[in-house]
Design goal:
Blueprint (H helix, E strand, L loop, with lengths): L6 H26 L5 E5 L2 E8 L11 H24 L4 H27 L26 E6 L3 E4 L11 E4 L3 E2 L1 H16 L1 H8 L2 H11 L2
Antiparallel strand pairs: 1-2, 2-3, 3-6, 4-5
Helix pairs in contact: 1-3, 2-3, 3-4
Length: about 220
């Protein structure tokens, strides 16, 4: 009888695969495209190189150094949580979803921590290059996150007769993101769709679990 692959090993392989694909795609874009360059794959899918200081999908809301530190702390806690659910033998699908979230968060951390130190700056008409550590465009924790996946699924203009918004240009989906962002988003959506109860149960403290059991037993 064939032995099952340990769940911990599956989690590690998922994380490594996502990180490799994410970093390979980012490094290729960074070293082959100038900022705002675009490659049209189809009418609704483009490789469009942008950088951002903020969170997923280019959203910027808080300071860069705070964001980088927050990401690192979040990854540490997610890693501890992942180790816990592997040890307690939770469902493989649930473990894979958490691994996807962890890999995505860690992927963007690598940009923030290292890219400012090892790359020259990207700007329109100029492709970045690798440089010795310390000769890059910024310092540790201040690197910009590379985004490139762009899906302008709907590009149209509302008719002039539409009240208030007539003549407005509509673009859906306008966000530009990377594989790390996609990994986080897909992992979270799958958690909410299929593992909401499992997630809630796993986050309960042992004391809460005992209370719940006591209530069920009357």
């Amino acid at each position: 009888m064939r032995e099952k692959i340990p769940k911990g090993l599956v989690a590690v392989l998922v994380i490594i695969l996502i990180l490799l694909l994410d970093q390979i795609s980012k490094i290729w874009v960074k070293t082959n495209m100038a900022l705002y360059d675009s490659i049209e794959i189809t009418k609704w899918f483009k490789i469009y190189f942008v950088e951002n200081n903020g969170m997923a999908f280019g959203i910027e809301a808080i300071g860069k150094i705070f964001l980088s530190i927050f990401r690192i702390i979040a990854v540490v806690f997610i890693g501890i949580y992942l180790a816990k659910i592997i040890r307690k033998d939770y469902k493989l699908g649930f473990i894979i979803c958490i691994s996807m979230v962890l890999a995505g968060a860690f992927g963007n951390i690598l940009d923030s921590v290292f890219y400012g130190e090892i790359f020259t700056a990207s700007y329109p008409g100029h492709v970045a290059q690798f440089v010795p550590i310390g000769e890059g465009y910024s310092s540790w924790l201040h690197g910009k996150v590379v985004d490139m996946l762009y899906f302008p699924l709907i590009e149209t203009t509302l008719p002039n007769w539409v009240p208030f918004w007539g003549g407005t240009e509509i673009l859906f989906f306008r966000f530009i993101f990377n594989l790390a962002d996609a990994s986080i988003s897909v992992g979270v959506v799958l958690l909410l769709l299929f593992y909401r109860k499992t997630l809630s149960h796993s986050l309960q403290t042992e004391k809460d679990k005992q209370k719940a059991i006591s209530k069920m037993n009357g």
